[in-house]
């Protein structure tokens, strides 16, 4: 009998006691995920769309086997939008997985963090200063546009003289 016999719960989803290593069980559709997680189907679908864009999401719960050794049980949301329970990964293997895939984490987090920083900057900045900066930028854009118009007019005049 395998030591992977404890009940596990992830996002309110219960798994069977009779798991064996390497066996995936409880593959679920958005409606089932919504029911088990007690969220709307729309929220579950948005979650799945985000996860599909990342190909898959893996997360884990640290557990202890019968011998007192810690291991991680891996849960995966696959590209087809289903949740699959995978076999236990010992902690060192999971740390290696994270090290190998760390740039994927930054690929996801960088735009999110940039957006958060921008929102915080706008919310906490003094509105007068922000308006001045916007006005300054607008004035610079207007100058550049007027220079471009003048260059076009000069080119037209030059073309007319050539004719």
Question: How is this structure best described in words?
Answer:
This protein is of the alpha+beta class and 163 residues long. It folds into two domains: 9-112, no CATH class; 127-162. The protein is built from five helices and five strands. The chain has a three-stranded antiparallel β-sheet. A hairpin with a 5-residue loop joins strand 4 (70-77) and strand 5 (83-90). The longest helix is centred in the C-terminal third of the chain and has 36 residues, at 127-162. The N and C termini lie far apart (94 Å). Mean pLDDT is 57; it is low at 1-27, 52-62 and 78-91.
Helix content: 55-70%
What is the average per-residue confidence, as pLDDT, rounded to a whole number? 57
Major sheet: arrangement of strands: 3-4-5
Radius of gyration, CA atoms, in whole angstroms: 28 Å
Topology as a string of helices (H) and strands (E): EEHHEEEHHH
Straight-line distance between termini:
94 Å
* Overall morphology: elongated
Strand percentage: 15-25%
Number of helices: 5
Poorly predicted ranges (pLDDT <50, ≥5 residues)?
1-27, 52-62, 78-91
Number of E strands: 5
Layout of helices and strands, plus pairs?
Elements: E1 9-10, E2 13-14, H1 30-37, H2 41-53, E3 57-64, E4 70-77, E5 83-90, H3 91-100, H4 102-124, H5 127-162
Helix pairs in contact: 1-2
Key structural traits:
3-stranded antiparallel beta sheet; 2 domains; alpha+beta; 5 strands; single chain; two-stranded antiparallel ribbon; 163 residues; 5 helices
Short description:
The chain has 163 residues and is an alpha+beta fold.
